[in-house]
Each structure stands twice: as structure tokens, then as C-alpha cells.
């Protein structure tokens, strides 16, 4: 099987700071991959390079065998890369329904969604548990529900690779549980790249985990391997995981 996504020698330098430092990375189709690491490790910068929000300083990104390093973000969305932002990117004054409708329209314009607008919106809202809030103003939703709305907007883009950046931040314990089920369901027809600080969520969901530290890959492996890795414990896990 060939990887869906690879990065080779991927690097991002901000002034004197190397935020992502020569990262070689590969994700297989259908995988749920978690990227973890201490604050400032370079996780958000790394996924921003993958989705095209930031240009790399050097290195290469391939998606489905194709070199996408120079492609603008909107072209990557068309290829099936969707990124839910760490900072809520919903339109506060539009309804929940209309926010998702914008994503469905975009997908329909690319002919990647051929059903009705309403079916596309309601399917994404049902999967995220937001169907009952379709007519609410997005800005009036609780923070956790706004995060779910972002996931619904990401799903409406019908991605092959869904990048979730700290999706459980601000969710209650019950919401985290349903979110975990949702990610498993999403992974039945998409590949998931998950940046997450909540270690129980990471350990429950990820097939494999990549640990970044100071922009470099410190370790990579199954949840069991990462849990047992002494270098990871020293850099990170000891402080945050039970
Ligand atoms: N636009 C930017 N300009 C300058 N420095 C930046 C910029 N974006 C990020 N950095 C720096 O790059 C480093 C990596 O940041 P990044 O946000 O990618 O880390 P992170 O692992 O996602 O952290 P967190 O877990 O806190 O979100 C940090 O030192 C940060 O201050």
C-alpha cells in the first residue's frame, strides 16, 4: 500500500526559529494518526504546511503520489485535504445550517457532491450531533459546539484527509466521548490527522502516533510503543498522561 500523504525533509523557519525541522512523515490511507508534542513543538505549523496555509522553507509534500508542495490551499481542498482550524473559523452571524451549506456548495461546485444541498448539510450536521441546532446562529453556540460545527464544515468538504487541530478543546466529557465515536466513523472513509493534547483521546483513537519536539520527530509508533518510550516520557508524557 502506498501512503496517502508523505512529507520529505519538510522545514519551516520563522526568522531565527526553525518551527518544523526536516520532518519525514508518511500516513497510510484509512489511518488515524495523532501528532502530539509539547506546546510550541511545531504541530500547528506542520499541518499548516500540509494544508497550504503556510509555504515551507524547504522540503516536499506529496498527496496521493502527487507533489503538492507548491499548490495553493484551495487547490489542496479540491484534492480532498480539509483542515479544521485551531481558531474557530465559523461565520458567527450565519446560521449553523448556512455555515455548512457554504462548504457543501464549494464541494458541489467541484462536482464532488452531487446530492441536494439540504441532504449534504443535514448529513454533516447529523454526523456531528448538530442537526437539532441547524437554525441557531453559529455565534450563539457554546464553544464546544462551534468546534463540532467546524468538523461538520470539514466533513461537508468530503475530504480524503481530514486534519483536526485540537478538536476536543472546550468539549465536555460526554461530548468528547461522542466525538471519539465520530472520528472512528469518519475514518471508515477518510484518513484522519489529529493534533490533540487530550492523551486518553489520543490513546483511544490513534493507530499510530508521531511525537514532535522542537520541530523534529522525537518518536513514532503505536500507542503502546509511544507510551513505553522513555524519551517521550521524559519530554512530554510524564507531565500530562496518567
Ligand atoms: N507565524 C509565526 N511567526 C513566528 N513564529 C511562529 C509563527 N507561528 C508559529 N511560530 C512559532 O513556531 C513554534 C511552533 O509553533 P506551533 O504553533 O506550530 O506549535 P504547536 O506545537 O502547535 O503548539 P501548541 O500546542 O501550543 O498549539 C513556536 O515557537 C511558535 O512561537
TrEMBL record:
CDD domains: ABC_Mj1267_LivG_branched (cd03219). One of its GO terms (molecular function) is ATP hydrolysis activity. Pfam families: ABC_tran, BCA_ABC_TP_C. SUPFAM superfamilies: P-loop containing nucleoside triphosphate hydrolases. Residues 5-239 form the ABC transporter domain. Keywords: ATP-binding, Nucleotide-binding, Transport. SMART domains: AAA. Coiled coil: none annotated. GO terms for cellular component: plasma membrane. InterPro entries: AAA+_ATPase, ABC_AA/LPS_Transport, ABC_transporter-like_ATP-bd, BCA_ABC_TP_C, P-loop_NTPase. This is ABC transporter ATP-binding protein.
Amino acid at each position: 500500500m502506498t501512503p496517502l500523504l508523505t512529507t520529505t525533509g519538510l522545514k519551516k523557519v520563522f526568522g531565527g526559529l526553525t518551527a518544523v525541522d526536516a520532518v519525514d512523515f508518511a500516513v497510510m490511507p484509512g489511518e488515524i494518526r495523532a501528532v502530539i508534542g509539547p506546546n510550541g513543538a511545531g504541530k500547528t505549523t506542520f499541518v499548516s504546511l500540509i494544508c497550504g496555509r503556510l509555504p515551507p522553507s524547504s522540503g516536499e509534500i506529496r498527496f496521493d503520489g502527487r507533489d503538492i508542495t507548491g499548490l495553493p490551499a484551495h487547490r489542496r481542498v479540491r484534492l480532498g485535504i480539509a483542515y479544521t482550524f485551531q481558531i474557530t473559523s465559523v461565520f458567527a452571524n450565519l446560521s449553523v445550517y448556512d455555515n455548512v451549506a457554504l462548504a457543501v456548495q464549494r464541494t458541489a461546485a467541484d462536482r464532488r457532491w452531487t446530492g441536494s444541498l439540504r441532504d449534504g448539510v443535514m448529513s454533516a450536521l447529523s454526523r456531528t450531533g448538530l442537526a437539532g441546532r441547524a437554525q441557531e446562529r453559529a455565534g450563539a453556540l457554546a464553544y464546544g459546539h462551534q468546534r463540532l460545527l467546524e468538523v461538520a464544515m470539514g466533513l461537508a468538504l468530503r475530504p480524503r484527509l481530514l486534519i483536526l487541530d485540537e478538536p476536543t478543546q472546550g468539549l465536555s466529557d460526554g461530548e468528547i466521548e461522542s466525538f471519539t465515536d465520530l472520528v472512528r466513523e469518519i475514518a471508515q472513509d477518510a484518513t484522519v490527522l489529529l493534533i490533540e493534547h487530550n492523551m486518553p483521546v489520543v490513546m483511544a483513537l490513534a493507530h499510530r502516533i508521531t511525537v514532535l519536539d522542537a520541530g523534529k520527530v522525537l518518536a513514532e509508533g503505536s500507542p503502546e510503543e509511544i507510551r513505553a518510550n522513555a524519551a517521550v516520557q521524559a519530554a512530554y508524557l510524564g507531565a500530562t498522561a496518567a
